[in-house]
Amino acid sequence: MEKPVFTPGDAVIIRASSQEPDTMTIQRLRVQHVRNLSAIDIEPHPQLNILYGENASGKTSLLEAIHLLSATKSFRTHRIGRVIQYEQDKLAVFGQIQSGRFSHKIGIERSKKTTEIRIDGESVNQASIPARHLPLQLITPQVNSLLEQGPKMRRRFLDWGVFHVKHDYLNDWRAFHRVLQQRNASLRQKLPKSQVCAWDKALLEAAHKITQSREDYITALSPLLAEYSLTLFGQTPELTYQPGWSQDQTLEASLQAGFSRDMERGFTASGPHRAELMLKFHGVPAQDVLSRGQLKLCISAMQLAQVAHLGQERSQTCIILVDDLAAELDQSRRQALVQLLIQTGAQVFITVTEAGLLAIPPDQGHKMFHVEQGAIAEKPR
Ligand SMILES: Nc1ncnc2c1ncn2[C@@H]1O[C@H](COP(=O)(O)OP(=O)(O)OP(=O)(O)O)[C@@H](O)[C@H]1O
Ligand SMILES: [Mg+2]
Questions:
Q1: What is the arithmetic mean of pLDDT over 13-36?
Q2: Residues with Cβ within 6 A of ligand 1?
Q3: Which residue minimizes the CA distance to atom 24 of ligand 1?
Q4: Which carries the bigger pLDDT value, residue 111 or residue 359?
């Protein structure tokens, strides 16, 4: 039988680590020409920020702007032209970030053709750099696709976590994908077997590093995920990782055995690029047994676990964006989620259509922002 869902009064403390992590916050945020937001300048609360307003007022656009600051891209579309305000050539987002004792200024400017990233006034040319400075988790109503769609999203989830706690990971990941591309190009050109397999040694080496890092990460994440899932919806998932090739043989053997098929198809079918992360309840995939609300809570638990793990490993908090928190959730689950979000110690931005949908504990520091037709005004509490 399911355990009862946690109610707001219960004391559930999932501490990231015995040592308090360095809090990372956006102290000031300026946004220009992002969708219907022409010119926004706000000073968010270091803990909790509630953005409320009618449909189409610009709430998700503000979260999109914060996402741009970290990832240099939107979470709604790959086409930046759709995000730039109508009739404008470019958008810009500036953030003053406080991370422990350090403060940084990040600026992102994007036109249809160019991306300019500035950290403390210096131009940088790698999109991974602002992401390092500003780790960000996004919980949206569409996030259920993490469990409902193919394995790519789940690999991305995994890689986000490993990328932020293990700084060599990005290099290993890039090295692997470079070799994979070369091997696939050789397959497409139908080169002799010896020339295709000349890539295998480097491929195996990089694949081993990626697989090891991901497996270590899952081992560390599992207890946190179990705890958050139990708190949010009274069940714990079984988390399993399939490395991207049959587990009864090595990757080397799998590459050998699959050579003719790879040659026929023109790509390498075994390796960590085909890995799968699975969440099951009673042996059945989560997406086949959970209700809509439970799915949302399950994914929120995965993301909260990542935030807590980052705090443990790096003593670092991250920014959490929650779009339309109330969607699909009843009152007690909403409160449970808000309470856990607050407990992470992260700076949280939550959007809702009506301010009254969330009950904020009376002693909880927070700011309320009313979003109306592309303008944002801080409201007295
Ligand atoms: N490129 C653009 N330029 C100007 N306005 C845009 C652009 N793209 C979208 N919009 C408009 O921006 C407005 C704000 O959209 P947004 O998705 O932020 O609303 P929201 O407050 O999240 O609404 P909901 O509560 O329905 O989710 C909408 O009216 C949308 O049509
Ligand atoms: Mg919205």
A1: 76
A2: 35-36, 53, 55-61, 82, 84-86, 353
A3: 55
A4: 111
